[in-house]
Design a protein that fits this description.
Helices cover 41% and strands 20% of the residues. It is an alpha/beta fold.
């Protein structure tokens, strides 16, 4: 299965996949719609990070790339950022979700980029789609979701033109929003949530360097991007609410009952201590990027 990019940081990937495949269509659609909302909020709140990472990638990319592929595009946060940076490039967004690709096309139209966007619905666990020669490929939080990363990387290497660049990005840990003491429950709730997520294998990914080298790439650069959004923008409460709502179900049975109660209070709509009403939120995290070139 190929998941959608940036995102979709499933707490328990197999459990999420089973729900997506076997639940009713409306339930799966609801999960995808919520995930799409989360990705769009990620783009708004972390816009400054996107500018930094695309600028860094651009320093290692071929001059004036003609074709950029967003691998596991989701709602296209990264692909559209590259479209803004490289004004003559065509962006090819590859994802298995029609809902995500539809959302991306609507956003591209709103931003006047529709004529430079091509969407391709494909499951990368089945085969690499026919997209033509590629100058720059972007895989943000998507490579760790494929069943056979070596095969996908080998396919990407073959798709890149000589001198072309692949940029792989992974989150080093979940984003942090809360102070240690949120005013109710025991201090340290967010840290305990992150520890439970780590035990469940959330977002587990390797150091991609040896995988990239094995597939024939030469590592051009590796960089860790620190993220600290201060002051937090107005959308931070909605972003934190969307993210913690996304992981909440996977924390059942992994956290003590009092922590789950505190988390549910944070996710409430009308509680004065809820995420949507707090003034003490921040956005902190780190992401690691690898830039790898086809010789």
């Amino acid at each position: 299965m190929m998941s959608h990019s940036q995102h979709h940081d499933h707490l328990d990937h197999e459990d999420q996949r089973d729900r997506h495949d076997h639940d009713g269509e409306g339930h799966a659609h609801h999960d995808e719609a919520g995930l799409a909302d989360l990705l769009d909020l990620d783009a708004v709140v972390l816009g400054a990070y996107l500018e930094k990472v695309t600028e860094w990638a651009g320093r290692h990319a071929p001059d004036a790339p003609r074709t950029i592929v967003d691998v596991g595009a989701g709602t296209g946060t990264g692909g559209l950022a590259f479209a803004r940076r490289f004004a003559t490039a065509e962006v090819v967004a590859v994802d298995r979700s029609p809902l995500m690709l539809g959302r991306l096309q609507a956003t591209a139209r709103e931003r006047g980029l529709a004529d430079r966007l091509r969407v391709v619905q494909a499951d990368l666990d089945l085969a690499w789609p026919s997209v033509g020669g590629v100058d720059l490929a972007w895989a943000s939080s998507s490579l760790h979701e494929v069943a056979d990363p070596h095969r996908v990387l080998t396919d990407l290497h073959a798709a890149l033109n000589p001198g072309g660049l692949l940029v792989v990005v992974e989150m080093d840990g979940p984003p942090r929003f809360l102070p240690d003491d949120i005013g109710f429950g025991r201090p340290g709730l967010e840290s305990r949530c992150h520890e439970a997520m780590a035990r469940a294998g959330w977002n587990a990914h390797p150091d991609w360097r040896p995988y990239l080298e094995r597939a024939g790439f030469q590592i051009a650069a590796e960089h860790r991007f620190g993220i600290e959004v201060t002051p937090a923008p107005p959308e931070t409460g909605r972003y934190a609410h969307a993210y913690l709502s996304h992981i909440r179900r996977g924390l059942d049975g992994r956290l003590p009952a009092d922590d789950l109660d505190a988390l549910d209070r944070l996710l409430a709509q009308d509680d004065p201590g809820a995420l949507l009403h707090r003034g003490d939120l921040t956005v902190r995290g780190t992401r690691t990027a690898w830039a790898a070139r086809r010789p």
